[in-house]
Specification:
Layout (H helix, E strand, L loop, with lengths): L4 E2 L3 H10 L6 H11 L13 H10 E2 L4 E7 L5 E7 L5 E10 L4 E2 L2 E2 L4 E7 L2 E3 L14 E4 L2 H12 L4 E6 L10 E2 L9 E2 L11 H11 L11 E5 L3 H10 L4 E5 L5 H7 L8 H15 L3 E7 L7 H11 L4 E2 L11 E2 L5 E7 L14 H13 L4 E4 L35
Parallel strand pairs: 1-2, 8-11, 11-14, 14-15, 15-16, 16-19, 19-20
Antiparallel strand pairs: 3-4, 4-5, 5-8, 6-7, 9-10, 12-13, 17-18
Protein name: Radical SAM core domain-containing protein
GO cellular component, one term: cytoplasm
Cofactor: [4Fe-4S] cluster
Length: 414
């Protein structure tokens, strides 16, 4: 059976059009028509050169993936899409709706209304093998193409208007965390995630985001968040390739020893080098960095851990916000551009070796970071647990003989 490429696979479509001598300006009009007519055939797109129709019919499809199932949570705000790929594998994407009027700014109710955020998968399974994560138990099957990544946005857009998109590392599946912006008129950032480590599929990630921020999608880069376990070499080039994005880092421990115990891949990304990479990213991008921290009872949730984390993050700096921008050469500590998200642990099965931290421990941890270190700290609200869409629960429970074992630490690129 012939294998077709997604029409949203920008690099392949551009290359094929160039080879056929067709102007690539038609790419945006092709995408716009498919968005407006999701059940169309590519031959129905108007005003294309005749050679373009032949090319599209033989090489591409409007969609190479299909929505297999849709699950709605009882809380009414979470929708999970089970998406079947062309190769028979499945990934999950999650839509969450959050009413910004429920938040506060400066102690007063915020303006706004409902906002939908899409959490996108970048891989089938994951190589990282984190011990608290369901997705990690799947092993790694394959990377998604850029077209398969973009198609998740298209599928979701047929259900609701998507304002924010997040590529997040595998264990924060459908947890909503609304982070209030410094600007009254800003709607804030929502943190969600899908399956896979986005920066382990770097080329496809970059290409997909460039499509999403271009015509006809026109998503603002500041509405897109990329989360990572801490792939240092990819973080070092992310800002130059995709300026303006938000970065979220799955830290989960304030010291390297504990981090390696719960995240085996952390051995490839030493904490000291990771912090240096994050400081450089923050200085260059002037964007917020979100620190993700899953609360595990007795493992990383004691007061000493809160103080260790606070001291670790004290070193972060951002450029001054004077009229001269960075030209004045002055730098100051400003941890308003650093946000810690405390994440309640979701047991991923009866065999889980971890327990959920008590509400009191989470509250005490937050108070130390806020009160002693003046670090903005939020606690994620659990949503979508009844459809296995909450933190640590995202895993496709379908048999697949093509699953590969988790990557050995020696095979991870530093």
């Amino acid at each position: 059976m012939a294998t077709y490429r997604s029409v949203f696979d920008a690099a392949e479509l551009r290359a094929q059009l160039n080879d056929a001598g067709i102007n690539t300006k038609f790419m945006a009009s092709i995408w716009k028509y498919v968005l407006q007519n999701p059940g169309c055939e590519l031959g129905e797109i108007p005003d294309l050169p005749s050679s373009a129709y032949r090319l599209l019919r033989t090489k591409f499809k409007p969609f190479t993936s299909t929505v297999h199932s849709v699950f709605h949570s009882t809380d009414g705000v979470t929708t999970k899409l089970l998406i079947k790929l062309q190769n028979g594998a499945f990934v999950e994407a999650v839509i969450m709706t959050y009413d910004t009027r429920l938040g506060k700014y400066g102690g007063k109710p915020r303006l706004g209304g409902p906002r939908s955020t899409l959490c996108i998968s970048s891989q089938v399974g994951c190589k990282m093998g984190c011990k608290f994560c369901a997705t990690g138990t799947m092993g790694f099957k394959n990377n998604l193409t850029s077209g398969e990544i973009v198609e998740q946005l298209v599928h979701a857009s047929l259900l609701t208007n998507i304002r924010n998109v997040v590529f997040m590392w595998h264990h924060f599946d459908t947890i909503s965390c609304h982070v209030v912006s410094e600007n009254d008129d800003d709607d804030g950032i929502y943190l969600l995630m899908g399956m896979g480590e986005p920066l382990n599929n770097y080329t496809a990630l970059v290409e997909a985001i460039r499509v999403m921020t271009g015509s006809p999608f026109q998503l603002s880069p500041k509405r897109i968040t990329v989360s990572t376990v801490g792939i240092i070499h990819a973080i070092n080039k992310l800002h130059s390739d995709l300026p303006g994005l938000n970065l979220a880092v799955s830290l989960h421990a304030p010291v390297q020893e504990i981090r390696c115990q719960i995240m085996p891949s952390a051995r490839a990304f030493p904490l000291e080098k990771l912090m240096t990479a994050l400081q450089t990213y923050q200085k260059n991008s002037q964007q917020k960095i979100f620190i993700e921290y899953i609360m595990l009872d007795g493992m990383n949730d004691e007061e000493q851990h809160a103080h260790q984390l606070g001291k670790l993050l004290e070193t972060f700096q951002v450029g001054c916000r004077c009229r001269g921008g960075n030209k004045c050469g002055l730098w100051r500590l400003d941890r308003a551009f650093l946000v810690v998200n405390l994440i309640p642990f979701n047991p991923i099965g009866s065999s889980s070796q971890f327990r959920t931290s008590s509400d009191q421990k989470v509250s005490d941890f937050q108070k130390i970071l806020r009160g002693t270190y003046n670090i903005r700290t939020t606690v994620r609200k659990q949503m979508g647990q009844d459809i296995s869409g909450a933190c640590g629960q995202l895993v496709v429970n379908l048999p697949d003989k093509r699953t590969r074992d988790l990557t050995d630490i020696e095979d991870l690129r530093i």
